[in-house]
Amino acid sequence: MSDKWHPRTKAVHAGTRRSQYGEVSEAIFLTQGFVYDSAEHAEARFLESGPDEFIYARYGNPTIAMFEERIAALEGAEDAFATASGMAAVSGALTAMLKAGDRVVAARALFGSCLYVLEDFLTRFGVNVTFVDGTDLGAWADAITPDTDAVFFESVSNPTLQVVDIEGVSKLAHAHGALVVVDNVFATPVYSRAIEQGADVVIYSATKHIDGQGRALGGVILGTRDFIRGTVEPYMKHTGGSMSPFTAWIMLKGLETMSLRVRAQTATTLTIAEALEGHAGLNAVLYPGLPNHPQHALTQRQMGAGGTVLSLDVKGGKTAAFAFLNAIEVGLISNNLGDAKTILTHPATTTHQRLPQDQKDTLGITDGLIRISVGLEDADDLLADVKQALERAR
Known about the structure:
Layout: H1 7-13, H2 39-47, H3 62-75, E1 79-83, H4 86-97, E2 103-107, H5 112-124, E3 128-132, H6 137-143, E4 150-154, H7 166-174, E5 179-183, H8 188-191, E6 201-205, E7 219-223, H9 225-239, H10 245-276, E8 282-286, H11 296-302, E9 309-314, H12 317-327, E10 332-333, E11 343-345, H13 357-363, E12 369-373, H14 379-393
Parallel strand pairs: 2-3, 2-4, 4-5, 5-6, 10-11
Antiparallel strand pairs: 1-7, 6-7, 8-9, 9-12, 11-12
């Protein structure tokens, strides 16, 4: 692979391994284990494996290795470890690096499962967790102290689309020797410059834009080779959170078209957001690509675009929000995002249902909030659908 290749070229070709048959499409190695020429060969392989030597699919596999190398090249990371799901990546990265007595500072605005890992799981094993307003650099500066081991945040929060300053938080964390762990799923690998901006560890739910077609669960942890192979791999291979070879093949195929899909979806999302600004049936349109978004300037500097997701705060609370959802004809009511199909979610009663009301209020998750992950349908069809649903909700 050439370092001079542009991201779209890397997304198609990086990390490719071809068998003796010279196949064009990447091969799927659907095998759990691998055969050794002799007992001595097996002993040597377990002592030290080379880059194209494998032991067991939980430890590594040629198809999985292709996906790991390709996404690492695209992200600008030294290495990557592919996981069974996005949450396997979040929990695996944090659990592998932390121990009892360590301290994490995290943004409060997080996906519900991420909050569970931090608030309920890690604290159960003696990790101290402090939450801050992720958009307030002053709050980060006050909370990050010499005893801080890591910081964690979503670069764009789910579902209220707050944007955290990766470079600003990274400088504060690195001044105290803390690692910066970023869940970057809303930014997508297409718009990501997280490592260049200071992140030490970048996490994706590959279920979202990387697959992008609703087929498989997957995740990936990216970072330095020492961190991935020295910290993450021993934990993940012994606890069983590895990606399957078939899923890795799906993700390789997804990477080939990801840039085209994500850029088209982003353009449609901006069109819809601009058209709905000031709509009589809405309290607010939340989208980082709009000039009125509180972190619009940061979004442009950090990502260069607003991404594929917007949220609408529908007037009339839950009743109006449900009427809106039930009137939608093109989009689907579900809870994934980054799909080729437009998906609408009511966070207060689904993905963030179990949050206490005071936390929902703090995060801005109102009863009228609808998250819309924009798909690949025609922009005019989607906009007309949303407008008719808003009229029926009123």
